[in-house]
Structure formats: C-alpha cells, structure tokens
C-alpha cells in the first residue's frame, strides 16, 4: 500500500476515495496532521491515482466526483455480495477466474479465426472468398463487407493486430457483453472496410480498422464516463496515436489508413453516443 497524496478536508478526501472506487481503485483515507492521506491498496494503480488526484485538486467540485458517489456505493455493495458468495460457495468464486474463452468468447473466436485463416486451415480459396468485392457483394455475397478483417498479410501484421485485439477486445467485451460487442464489431468493420474501399479500392485486409474502432470506443467512453471501467493507460493511448500518425504520413508503407480512420471515427462516435443520449434526456 502506497500513498498517492493528501487532501485538506476529510469530506473532499472521502469524495475522492469514492471516485477512485468507482474507477476500480480501492483506497484508504487516514488522518495525517492537518490533512487527510489517500493510501492506494494496489501499487500498480499508484501512478494513475496520482494523476487523478492532481485533476481533483484543480476542480474538486466537478460533477463527475459527485456522480461517482452512487457508483462507489454500488461497488461496495457488489464487493459485499461477492464476499458472501465466496463464503457460501467456493466454486462460484473460482468462476470469477474462468478461462479466456469464458470471459471473452467473441474476441477469442475472432483471434482463432484470423490465425486459422493465416495458416491456411480453410483451404487455398478461402482468402478469395472473403476479400472485398463490390460486384460479388451486389450479387448477394454480403459477408464480403465484413470478412476482410479476418485476413492478414504476414506474421508481423497478424501478431500486432491479434495482440491489440486481445487487449482492447477483452476490455470492451467484458463491459458490453458478447451480443452488444458483436454488434459494435460488425458496425466498425463495415464502416472501416467501406471507407477504405471508397478511398482506395478493394485491395485491403486486416483487423486494424476494428482495432482502432475498439480503441476509439474505449478511449472516448472512458474519458466521458470514468466509472465505466473502460480505462486505457496514457502510454497505450499514445502508442496507438503515434502508430496512427506514422502510418498516415507514409512512414509505415502499404497500410489501410482509411480503414484506420474510418474505424476510429466509428468507434469514437459509438463511445460518445451514451453521453449524448444522457445529455439530451437531461435537457428535455
């Protein structure tokens, strides 16, 4: 346990602790002279806690801190119920640590499908049947609007996209559940593929448009709803943004940049949608 910093008043310290709890960070408030210290239980969360504390000091009256109180109460109730479940049934507690297939089934199916296609498990003609082709789409092969995302042009391309898909997909799938997650992926794939086709033609493939869509969704919604659990580390955000720019300016050659852009915009728009709808309801 490490200290993130101190706050002048107990009420502010407790409100900040509630906000951290809404973010999934457990803490302890202790008196320290004339101030109140915030102790973070998980040392891996200390840097983020310090960043959040700095923002809190600038504007402790921000409505998001007040809104976090309800989320903190819900988190405490959930923790209490979880403890009761563990005491009643040890097997139920172990289910919280289920296999990757249980916790992120759609993401794992997508990864396996991409790897299987790369290894030629579906035969030599599979790629031709899955590529984007407007004449074939117009004749009824509508799956081609989506399926280019499962194809990759080499090991490095595949490995990078699968790593990003596992991290971002797992985060978003756990938040949305498998069915809403499937709809999000299909929408982002459709937008990113068609954007690339409209700008550069049908010769493209790869999951990166979907990856940037998941990134845009998690980034925007996580910023607007800090209690949502869709937190992305600043260095992770910076890496994806730098990669986006390097590809866009041509440092990384032969990249479907329009798919990146289309996916990012589509995902960000979906991430903003809950906030927009909530704002409209409050104003009516």
Description:
- This protein has helices spanning 10-22, 46-58, 63-88, 90-94, 100-103, 105-118, 126-130, 134-138, 155-176, 178-200, 208-224, 234-248, 257-283; strands spanning 2-7, 27-32, 35-40.
- The protein is mainly alpha-helical.
- The protein has 2 domains: 2-93, Alpha-Beta Plaits; 100-283, Rhomboid-like fold (Up-down Bundle), CATH 1.20.1540.10.
- Strands 1-3-2 form a 3-stranded antiparallel β-sheet.
- Helix 10 (178-200) packs across helix 11.
- The longest helix has 27 residues, at 257-283.
- The protein is elongated.
- Residues 86-97 have low confidence and may be disordered.
Mind summarizing the main beta sheet?
Answer: 3 strands, antiparallel
Architecture of the largest domain, according to CATH?
A: Up-down Bundle
Structural class: mainly alpha
Please name the fourth-level CATH homologous superfamily of the largest domain. Rhomboid-like
- State the name of the first-level CATH class of the largest domain: Mainly Alpha
Distance between the termini: 46 Å
Helical fraction? 55-70%
Proportion of strand residues:
5-15%
